[in-house]
Amino acid sequence: MLKILGLIFLFIYVIRPLFKLLFKSYIITQVNRQQSEQAYRQKETKREGSIDVDYVPPQAKSKPRSTKVDDGDYVPFEEIKE
User: 48: pLDDT confidence band, cut at 50, 70 and 90?
Assistant: First the structure.
């Protein structure tokens, strides 16, 4: 009987507050982690209409273009109605 009372006393006054403390610290840690992740995501978001270029290919050394550019022959286009 005395062992049972001792275990109940131990549970109520020692183990239960210890679990509360550990659970509270765990929740606070998780909340802080979520807030920091959310702040990071908000920082990463782009404004609408902005353009980011991650890779710019190197410019190839090109020969100077001639002044005359040959685009080919012009073919007149006519619509055919059926």
Answer: confident
